[in-house]
Amino acid sequence: MQTYRSSWLIDNLARIFISVFVFFAGCATPRQCLTPSERKGILGYEMTVVDRGQSYTVWRSKLVQQMQYDLGLQNLNETAKDLTFTLGYPEIMQGHDDGMMKTHVTIKSPFDGQMIPVLILSSKTTLSDDRADVVLLIHGHHESIDDMTNVKSQMRGLGSQLARAGFVVLAPEIRSFGEFEINHKGHGAYIRKKADGEFLREVLADMFSVTEFAKQRYKNFRSLNVVGHSLGGYIALHFSALNPAIQRTVISGMFFPYACINTNYHHACQHFSQFEEAAEFSDVAGLIAPRKLLVHFGRDDKYYTPAVISIFHRAQRIYEDQGAKDAIVLEVNPGRKHEINPETVLPFLKN
Ligand SMILES: [Zn+2]
Q1: What are 165-183's pLDDT values in tens digits?
Q2: To 5 degrees, how large is the angle CA 297–CA 302–CA 308?
Q3: Domain range 2-350, CATH architecture
Q4: Could you tell me which of 44, 41, 29, 34 has the C-alpha nearest to residue 308?
Q5: Spans of all domains in the chain
Q6: Tens of pLDDT along 307-348?
Q7: How many angstroms does the Cα of residue 321 sit away from the middle of ligand 1?
């Protein structure tokens, strides 16, 4: 018995060593995610506007074109107009005796024909309000639209809180998560053979379809806003940069140098390596200026590092140059981890 045990150990020693090494290597944070970012993209704000004196307007237009080209997304607004959708009946939300309603809608993507599930959350009084304040609320990795009303999820029940505060919430399922299954594949299998940027392109096209639905249903909407957590924040940033109709943007738990995003520290669905040479994450945030932008982190979030702060300061510089210093805000909540904070998001959207 003793001999058997020790020979098993010897036979498997190499395997155990490799497993332990891979585990710790996977846990380690890459240098690019920890250290302040100083890399200037060749179409970045510092290189073109600050160093070469190009105007903000010309820079903005060139960078938007480059991003659309790298994503393969041109004529976005035009294509999105051709959508069709199926609207369900409004139901009273279980556990809410204060007139909270939920409605399911399925939007057929005019880009590739996929059916996008969207949950609409509203109060009875805003249900048919043409002049709605609309919030596109985007969940994070491995979450789903079911988490929008769950206070224990990373969304912290923000969906119901926004609806209770009078907003109309449109929560789209990110494709390959939750109800939005494609060809019976889970998220990992769905993106396995995709090139960098391909998943981002598909999801952004889905978001343009959802926004077009909002424009058709709430014809005189008062405001159109986008809030995203983690993967949802990553989508929200690129979406607002490409969509001038968005008035307020909230990005929670996601504000990093591309050199950090394009590593194994972030899942391959977020990799966008072809754009890394052109610009930095802060430049994409700068494309949103002078519109309002809230960057949010929990102080105990393992993703909150000096790299985040440096990217924020670089984005803030672009806002300052546009005379909109106060329109960009970094709010860090003590005692919070990788989760959104309704108490921070609500006042920002109401302001
Ligand atoms: Zn992923």
Answers
A1: 999 999 999 999 999 999 8
A2: 50
A3: 3-Layer(aba) Sandwich (3.40)
A4: 34
A5: 2-350
A6: 999 999 999 999 999 999 999 999 999 999 999 999 999 999
A7: 35
Alpha carbon of 62 to ligand 1 centroid (Å): 29
Output the CA 18–ligand 1 centroid distance in Å.
25
291 Cα: distance to centroid of ligand 1 (angstroms): 29
Q: Give 217-250 as a DSSP string.
A: HSTT-SEEEEEEETHHHHHHHHHHHH-TT--EEE
- What is the distance in A from the centroid of ligand 1 to the CA of 267? 5
Q: Which of 226, 309, 214, 237 is nearest to 67 (CA)?
A: 237
Q: Residue 232: name the closest of 298, 327, 296 by CA.
A: 296
Distance 249 CA to ligand 1 centre (A): 22
Q: Which of 282, 308, 229 is nearest to 43 (CA)?
A: 282
Judged by average pLDDT, the poorest of 117-121, 122-126, 195-199, 325-329 is: 122-126
Dist. CA 203 → ligand 1 center (Å) = 12
